[in-house]
Amino acid sequence: MPVRDRLPAGRTHVPSAGGSRPPGGPSDRHHEILDAALELFATVGYGGTTMAQIGDRLGIRGPSLYKHIASKQELLVEIVTGMMTELLRRQQAALARGGDVSERLQRITAVHVQYHAEQRYEAFVGHREIDSLEEPHRTHILDLRREYESRFRELVQEGRELDVFRTASDRWSSYAILDMGIGVSAWYNPSGSVSPEQLADTYAELALRMLGAERDSANTREG
Amino acid sequence: MPVRDRLPAGRTHVPSAGGSRPPGGPSDRHHEILDAALELFATVGYGGTTMAQIGDRLGIRGPSLYKHIASKQELLVEIVTGMMTELLRRQQAALARGGDVSERLQRITAVHVQYHAEQRYEAFVGHREIDSLEEPHRTHILDLRREYESRFRELVQEGRELDVFRTASDRWSSYAILDMGIGVSAWYNPSGSVSPEQLADTYAELALRMLGAERDSANTREG
DNA sequence: CCTACCGATCGGTAGG
DNA sequence: CCTACCGATCGGTAGG
Question: Is strand C less than 7 A from the beta carbon of A29?
């Protein structure tokens, strides 16, 4: 359900490297285009976005965009691959910190949710517009996604085998965790009073409870 | 994440009333069109579906559809309003059965999930294509959805005030439950070995755990 | 970065 | 239920 209403306006920049890039450089323009496209794809959809609209946001005409980009499809590919790459990167970092299975599950859930709040536009587009990707990009993204998902499932399984988690199905439990995090990208409001970190912590707690983890409620985070 | 791959082929009929309708009657054709449109909207999107494609499924040309329907938009409106109406109807029936707050929360979660598995195409389209609705339909649907969601939130609140549930936020908990159910419509495979009922029961259990409900694990269902 | 424009697609209508 | 077709939109190219 959550999507409440249309996605609220507001920016969700890919880090713009505030100053380290030569001003007026070609990749600056590319980045501005990507940014405008992201916001439009998120609010009116890939198919619903025209090159003229993207150009409007930069004060130029549609055809002028082609001096900086190859195609509309290229913009989508960059957005979606950037999203999956970043999700996998954060997930790997979370796992690399080690800890018991509850800690690791809690951490990959938290980074999952935090990303979907912080970069809600990338996440929203990344999930919604996968079928707008032409091959072989679509297949590639689906492969990355399967890898991302399998980390959750494997961790749930590990916990269940150790009798730390109690669940009827590793698969369904991990899907439930993934899906409730994805949902965040549809309703999170960055102008609200809650930070992505707070939301991430709360959801990670919900996930652990869902898995029937016996909480010591104290030492789940290392000192 | 879950969407695994493209939505698998397969039918999800609005009940076709096997035989009680006069054969060749006008509403038969209307229903066939609606059915073809549903499957196409679910697999290639509303914007990605052409009238010619819908016609193809019935062995007729695109323009011939207009003898039975008013517009492409009308088809979407019927699908989405049908979905929200049915969800609300089932939810009300679940609440009307009474019981304590855990029982009622468990039941509205179960019907939520069961619908998203049984009618996964309607549900998928109903969530994904809301922004493809023209006004005033879009606003109307969003109103119905808010009503549907609020029942979850109110029930979570009731349980928390009774100290039956323990949750950091009624809102986030209810969104989590709603979103994990919505996710089902993207990955559920009706050809698999698990029934919508089984999935619904399992998810209802996950929801209760998430809310920190103290399970007696026995008398949560009346005799 | 622009205007002019091509080629293709599509929802819907006309008129049988 | 069909063919013929209108009017509008859109991604992308040509050629400055």
Answer: yes
